[in-house]
Amino acid sequence: MTSRKAGWLAIITLIGLIAVLPVPEFWIIQLNYIGISSLAVLGLILLTGVGGLTSFGQAAFVGIGAYTSAYLTVNAGLSPWLTLLIGMALTATCAIVLGWITLRMSGHYLPLATIAWGLSLYYIMGNLEALGKYDGILDVQSLKVGGWDLGHGRVFFVMTWSLLLLASLGMIHLLDSRVGRAIRSLKTGSQMAESMGIDTLKFKIGIFTLAALLASMSGWLYAHFQRAVNPSPFGMQIGIEYLFMAVLGGAGHVWGAITGVTITKLLSDQLQVLLPKLIGTSGSYEIIVFGVLLVLTLKYAPEGIWAFVDRRLPKAPRKVDWHQAAPLAHRSKPAAGEVVLQVKDIRKEFGGLVAVNNINFTVQSAQIVGLIGPNGAGKSTTFNLITGVLRPTSGSVTFRGESITNSASREIAKRGISRTFQHVKMIADMTVLENVALGAHLRGDQGAVSAMLRLDRSEEQGLFKEAEFQLRRVGMGEYLHELAGNLAMGQQRLLEIARALCNDPALLLLDEPAAGLRHKEKQALADVLRQLKSEGLSILLVEHDMDLVMQVTDRIVVMEFGTRLIEGTPEEIQASPEVRAAYLGTEH
Question: pTM of whole model > 0.85?
Answer without folding.
Answer: yes
